[in-house]
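Hello,

Our lab assistant flagged a job as stuck in the queue for most of the afternoon. It eventually completed. Since we weren't sure the result was trustworthy after the delay, we are filing this so someone can double-check. Below is the sequence as submitted and the structure that was eventually returned. Let us know if re-running is recommended.
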Amino acid sequence: MNPIATILEKFPMMILDGAMATELERHGCNLNDSLWSAKVLMENPELIKRVHTEYFLAGADCAITASYQASVEGFVRLGMSQRDALLLIQASVQIAVQARDEFWKNSDGRLDRPKPIVAASVGPYGAYLADGSEYRGAYELSEEELIDFHRPRMKALIDAGADILACETIPCLSEARALVRLLEEFPGVYAWISFSAKDELHISDGTSITECAIWLDKKEQIAALGINCTSPRNIPRLVQEIRSCTMKPIVVYPNAGERYDPTTKTWYGASSREGYGNNALEWYESGARLIGGCCRTKPEDIKAIADWARK
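-- returned structure --
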């Protein structure tokens, strides 16, 4: 079953969660590491569960797992066995599922919202490199090499029981093609593809978003497509461009408006957080139907979306 279609048949939109790393840092974690938030899977899994719960309480209909920067190669590089690496990747799904199930069991607001789903994050190859490549896409890898890189993690996440895959912050169409080809090895499994974007018309490597949408439109296992981790100001036009090419649901979860320096691993510039809820309403009116937040967004931003979405 396509979980996004199931939710959108009954509800006008689906609210995603916000940044995982931002909340982990707020709780005292130091994420200046090649594994980023995935390192907390090893050190403090209960804190990840707590962050998932905070987003559910804020109104999120979907938890995106802490597996964005988790890869077999990344964990093995730290001395872990391949088997233990795969178990840790699967733990990211199990933690989110447990948080979801406990939240739903204790929730008294079921009539105005769907039961949340768990989306297993499949970050780009560039996230493994930990050098900002997910905002450039210049990998010099073939599609076959990208498929081989993504296969073990994708299989582990599916086997762990994720409801859907979130193939996110994809910087180039060639990696999206590789992920779709790999997805075909798992019949009946659905994913969304969301690209990182450099402006209102192009994804990070310069490919037009319309070219990406046209190619993905015919892919049956792609349940939604869109943009994440770009500036909120780029979203309305990007949504319009995607909508002109496909009737698939559009997913958007931009960052808070600041810019990321991959060298210093710091954020700089002005945030758009103050009006995040109002911005999200504009994205909805433009045609987006899955809306949440990426880097530097917080549960308060997700609550601001839920406040108007569930009136």
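-- support follow-up --
The delay was a queue issue, not a problem with the job. The result is valid. The longest strand covers residues 164-170. The chain has one domain: 3-309.
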